[in-house]
Amino acid sequence: MSQPAPLGRDPVHPRPPTPSGAAAPKKRSDLAARLFTASILIPGVLYIIALGGLFVLVTVVVFVLLAQREFYGLIEDKGAHPIVGFGLAAGAALPVVAYLGNEYHATVLMTATLLVVMLAQLGRREITQSLVSISGTFFGVFYVGWLLSHAVVLREFYTQVVSRHGEAAAARLGLVPDSGAFLLVYCLTVVVLCDAGAYFAGRAYGKRQLAPRISPNKSVEGAIGGVVAGTIGGLAMKGVFDLIWPDLSTGLSYSAGAVFGVLVSIVGIVGDLVESLLKRDAEVKDAGALLPGMGGILDRIDAPLLGIPVTYYLMLFYVWLEVG
Fold first, then answer.
1. Strand partners, 219
2. Using CA atoms, how far apart are residues 45 and 55, in angstroms rounded to an integer?
3. Segment (H or E) for 174
4. pTM over 0.90
């Protein structure tokens, strides 16, 4: 016979994981609401990217706070209790630190965050939730705050290159102060069109399930269609910039754009699956309900959360190859 929990303790009772054979029932797609939300969200994001600077920073901080709170909601749905206040503060601080420095300084803050979270557990009267509290709080800071903070340094990519290789190297590569605007738009174009391509290709040709235990409606054919659509979309966006704002897109060649498009599309699909895994384990359809037809902020940025950092580090590697 199981023993009752001692008085004063608040044991964690996480919900059991979804059975392996279970599949979410298909529901009617609210495509009209999704398109309406996109028609408002996309122009606003593009305008903020064009403004750059503090406008991008403030937007990223807001997105981090909203998405990270949704993430902690998923953990709370499992019966755990993350340190929400501190986690949100640390997550919001990461883009600020990245803006004032670079991703290295954000990584230092991540280390300090982990230490503080562990120290906070040492001072608790009850230790029954220490493991899930530490891991849940810190993963929320990493998954949302640290990954999304790369949007700030990608927008300021010229500054990052100058700090590493100097102005002469940036000029030789054709980079200008607003080159990061193109790179961020390019990345978002790839992941958004990959998502759209996967949706329509999956509906038209989907037969083989991509990850049946995580997201039964996603198919291998849809993923292939998404990679093709994302790659073509990224190259098309470079073509648009080459015609209208050529100074901004000179730093990325078409060959590199094609390779990056494939890689960013793939990691975008992985990001989508990771968030689907978290929602399935928490037994919820959407992480939130802020965006009509799209769910929450976390549901919308699941692919960019991986796509943006990968684009940033691919570009750093590309610059390193070019400058020798």
1. 209
2. 10
3. none
4. no
